[in-house]
Recover the amino acids of this structure.
């Protein structure tokens, strides 16, 4: 269902997605959501905002293989995570998304701090997407200052300023605030998508699932923003 009058001037409808860099379902879900938005005649009415959420804030800062991270956190047979990675790789590739199973895993706090800086500069979505997409394609190691500063420069940030952020603890409060706000809204895992602060979806939905949520959001959209009441899964 699409807006019958796409030329109508209406207030922006904000779609927020709590997400973590290394979450494969966040990667797939983001692209499905963007496809659903692009499929609407009024797609330019939607404003997509990514929000920080650290799935494992206690993860080590030294990168390790996905298998090593799984054994350290859960013990047992690493083949479980290998098989899961192969399944989502096949799914992602079937949707035209590159997906490397040889990614590294590490603490994402530094990435999120630079992302928050990028948000301040108006290029948060561009920075997050560039780094995440190349990370899953196997083309970028996001756990080095060189990689993050170079990625920042590609979206218009000062590479030197990115290095300054990484050298200290700037924007840690902003990351923490995103995490805390997400939990208040019911986030237990990611991706967690909030449509105009009136509807929420936990997990990566199908393109059709996102499309239905967008249609429902538009159909019930007030002329002015209203405070959220409670979230529900579409």
């Amino acid at each position: 269902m699409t807006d019958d009058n796409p030329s109508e001037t209406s207030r922006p409808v904000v779609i927020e997605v709590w997400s973590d860099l290394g979450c494969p379902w966040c990667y797939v879900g983001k692209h499905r959501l963007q496809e659903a938005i692009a499929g609407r005649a009024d797609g330019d009415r939607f404003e997509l905002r990514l929000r920080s959420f650290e799935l494992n804030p206690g993860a080590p800062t030294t990168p390790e293989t996905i298998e090593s991270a799984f054994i350290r956190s859960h013990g047992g047979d690493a083949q479980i995570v290998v098989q899961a990675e192969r399944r989502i790789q096949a799914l992602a590739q079937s949707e035209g998304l590159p997906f490397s199973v040889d990614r590294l895993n590490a603490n994402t706090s530094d990435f999120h701090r630079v992302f928050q800086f990028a948000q301040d500069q108006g290029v948060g979505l561009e920075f997050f997407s560039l780094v995440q997409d190349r990370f899953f394609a196997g083309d970028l190691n996001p756990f080095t200052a060189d990689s993050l500063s170079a990625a920042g420069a590609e979206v218009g940030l000062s590479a030197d300023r990115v290095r300054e952020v990484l050298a200290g603890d700037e924007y840690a409060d902003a990351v923490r605030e995103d995490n805390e706000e997400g939990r208040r809204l019911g986030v237990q895992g990611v991706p967690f998508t909030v449509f105009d602060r009136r509807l929420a979806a936990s997990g990566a939905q199908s393109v059709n699932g996102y499309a239905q949520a967008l249609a429902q959001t538009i159909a019930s959209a007030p002329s002015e923003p209203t405070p959220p009441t409670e979230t529900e899964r579409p």
Q: What stands out?
A: Confidence is low (pLDDT under 50) at residues 1-9, 229-234. The first strand starts at residue 13 and ends at 19.
